[in-house]
Hints:
166 residues, 66% helix, mainly alpha
Amino acid sequence: MPEPPPRAVERDLYRDTWVRYLGYANEVGEAFRSLVPAAVVWLSYGVASSYVMADAIDKGKKAGEVTSPEAGRSTRVTVAVVDTFVWQALASVAIPGFTVNRVCAASLYVLGSTTRWPLAVRKWTTTALGLLIIPVIMHPIDRSVDFLLDSSLRKLYPSVEKPSSS
């Protein structure tokens, strides 16, 4: 009996489509912090956190559909959800949000101390800088979180295939 043709690679809704950009919402919110009410920034964290939760749930569902002699279904699902949630929470929300926040706060302070630009110009300059650093910081943060999890949390997993986080 001939083997069935290989399945096409499935597109991951949370990693391979425009939905991935929802994970960057809080960085955009942080960049605009000096221009918008705090509620807008918190809303951006809500969007990014919802993305993280949805991705973790999706990875858990996919892990539950895989048959594997190595580990039980509940173990595979738990590992997938925990790994995805922790990775995304660190790499998509916490670390980049903190980084953009601190860069914007520092730039607003430095511009206020070293220039005579009007406040509105300083705030828009800070926002532009915050938006510009987002693509620069993403890959180093992703790789750093991979290293952190490989060196810590992922050592605790039973012998199941490690989820792909990035």
